[in-house]
Input
Amino acid sequence: MPIKIPAALPAYNALMDENVFVMSEVRADHQDIRPLRVAIVNLMPTTVETETQLLRLLSNTPLQVDITLLRMGSHESRNAPPGHLERFYVTLDEVMHERFDGLIITGAPVETLPFESVDYWEELGAVIDYSVRHVWSTLHICWGAQAGLYRRYGVPKQVLDKKLFGVFPHRVNQKYAMLFRGFDDEFLAPQSRYTSCDRDAVASRPELTIQSESAEAGIFIVTAREGREVYVTGHLEYDPLTLDREYRRDLAKGLPIAVPKNYYPGDNPDCAPLVRWRAHAHLFFSNWLGYVYQETPFDLNELR
Output
């Protein structure tokens, strides 16, 4: 089954060109089934790129997924194409009385700031609070994971000596957990961040379960409320060239940046990168959607 998105969204044509099964709103409205309702809070400056990455992964299941894109009304984006957010996104105020099967909160380039110093912190906090009773399962990514753990459990973040940057091996702690069905015992995933979660603080909270971690990259996936909260510190959604673009962007700005580890053959940036996380990325998002599909009440008004 396809993913349902507006035909005018830039990701629509990009995914169609890749032969990904997407469906316009007009066609979807004539099908007599209830699609999964998934909202995406896109905080990344690469607005269209991030949309496409996430929608690509959400489309790879037999389920029809109805997407709502959310923006921070208290924040003025300087990177989205002119008029893009106004055309395709809504604010929390506009969906406050609606319910969703799933919610995704992306990362953001604000990780070295104290949470309270982020200009949209209170609005994002309101989204996180709203999700408790209005969303079945919320998937937090990178800074979005740190923000959720801090907002809900007071877990602090720690500034790293240097950027954690590259593709790292991670192990599965809970082999038979629903998110890891079909996973290898060890798998690769991209990381790109200047901060990390305090592992001791996470482990001290009985509500939180560390499902996956890395000897080098630290905590990777944490869950709570039996999967209704999922925190992912890295970027399984990244496409093949995302780390390459970040690396060359920082070089051009004269920022101190190392070659992303385990990404280019021989760590040589003159070589085309090797993609070694794509299969597990698709599997993870498929497992998450499958869990949401099986567990969410058919009538979303029954969410508690």
